[in-house]
Each structure stands twice: as structure tokens, then as C-alpha cells.
Write a structure and sequence with these properties.
Among the domains are: 84 residues, Helix Hairpins, CATH 1.10.287.90; 89 residues, Cupredoxins -  blue copper proteins (Immunoglobulin-like), CATH 2.60.40.420. Helices cover 36% and strands 18% of the residues. It has seven helices and twelve strands. The strands form three sheets. A five-stranded mixed beta sheet has the order 3-2-1-5-8, with no helix packed on it. It has a five-stranded mixed beta sheet with strand order 4-10-9-6-7. A two-stranded antiparallel ribbon has the order 11-12. Helix 1 runs antiparallel to helix 2. The longest helix is centred in the first third of the chain and has 34 residues. The chain is elongated, with a radius of gyration of 27 Å. The protein binds dinuclear copper ion. Dinuclear copper ion binds next to loops.
Length: 310
Amino acid sequence: MIDAHASIFDPVSPEARAISHLFVISLGICGAIFAVVAGLAVYSLARFRWRDGDPEPRQVHGIRRLEIAWTVAPALILVVLFGYTLRAMQVADRPLEGSPDLVVVGHQWWWEVRYVGTGVMTANEIHIPVGRPIAVELDTTDVLHEFWVPQLTRKMATIPQAGNHVWMEADRPGVFEGLCSEFCGTQHAWMRFQVIAESPADYASWQLSEQEKPAGMAGEAAKGGELFRSMTCVNCHSTDALTRLPAEGPNLAHFAGRRFLGARIVPNTPENLRRWLQDPQQVKPGAKMPNFNLSAVQLGQLVAYLENLR
Ligand code: CUA
């Protein structure tokens, strides 16, 4: 269920476009240099190879004009690349003025997402309105991670206690793949997320729905809710998007609306959730979620509860 791709050749923001252009221009220039150098080398090998009986070739000391040319030409190419690099930096790496719109915190191996204005907290899925630059402050609770949405942002490391930021923007609605691009342990490859860019109206209604408390539940789901509180799930996971508690594990508010489990490792279906609760290590080896050795009845109740958190 890959409903989006992550190609730097399909940029969807001014930031990503500047970086993509810089890459394509560098690639073109380097490709041309490679073709000229390799072409001359191959031509010389074929044309001027030594054959039996050839006399000793003419000995030359140097050609001044050629030496000037191959000094000046690379210098000019570097000036051009320098100009393009400065421009890409200006567009993609603007300083942060005032407070950020979003705080994203890297954890081994998932992403905590906090909206500064509303206090809404979520995990591994970032909703943004289209057409507006979003300032994202980056932090980490453990090791170095690197935040990257290839179609929307530059890469930026999350450094403990250092404070970093990145600008994110989407020109059109869509779902964009994000990932951790710095090795950070066992499940680095599955420290992924999605950015859901939507119209300002859709984004505003998403913000409002996140702030709603979950509806009361009955039957199996209500029993699952009691289990969730009594079995210490609440020590790490909140089901309130407006909580102020530190997040040990992903915030599960409105969990039923999440697309994936385990930072994108499997789609959020009742079957996959059951597998995850039964033995998290089997789904995502190394994940910090312990195995609670739940009975079949308990598993059913917890799945009913979580899949009713709308
Ligand atoms: Cu986090 Cu790699």
C-alpha cells in the first residue's frame, strides 16, 4: 500500500525544487566533464598506442595555452556551481524567525509531532496546509536522527540539545513520504512517516477533530479501554492529543485514523494491530514496545478499543 513515492526528481516545494535543480545541474556538468575526459583518454589510448617498430614519440615539455585553459575552465565551472549552491541554500535553508509551527522529535524509531499553536500531538503522520511555509523545529530524545521529506524539505539532523530547524512546504495537496536518513540503530529503515498536505480548510477541520475527546465506548471496546489503563499502556501512550505529558511512546489519539503502525512498517488494520500487540518484536524487532503476553480475549478487547479511537 505505497500510495506515494519519494523522489527528489519530483519536487513539490520551493525548497525541494532548489535542491533538485542544484543536483541536476551538478550532475549535468559532472557528466559532461566525465564524457570529455573519458572520451579523450579512450581516443588517445586507441589512436596513439605504441606499435612494434614505432620510433620514440616527440618529447614535449608543455603547452601554456592548454594549461591556462584547463585552469580557467574548472574555475569558471566552480563559480557557476557556487552560485547555484548559494541560491539553493538561500531558498532551502532560511533562518527561523519567531517560534516554529511544529516541533518534531525523533525517537528510536518513530517521530513525535507537536503543533505549537494548538497543542495537538500526534505521531508519524504530519498534516500541513498547502501553500504555506511551515517552520519545523527538530529535536531528539536519544541519538542523532535525520528528518527528510525528499519532495518537500532538505535533510536536517536532529541533534540532542542543539536545536535545529527545517522549512517544509507543499505546493499541492498529496501524501509525501518522509524518512530518517541517518543510521540510528536496529530499526533505522523503519523510522518513516508521511506528510499529508491538504487544503487550508481540510487542514483546519483536521486540527479541530484532533482536539475532540474520543467518544464513550461500550462492550469489548470499553473493556479494552480499561485494559489499556490497567496494563500500564498509559505509562507510555496517551490517547489525548492535547496531553502535555512527555511522550515515551507514540501518542495514540484518534488512532483509528492512522494509516500505518510502527512508523510505517505495516498498514493499520485490525489484523496487523493484533499481530503487533501479540508480539511487537515479531513485527518490528528492536522496537521499545514490550510483549505483554496478552490472552486472545485481551487482544480482541484492545484491538476493539484502539480501532474505535476516532
Ligand atoms: Cu532515526 Cu535513522
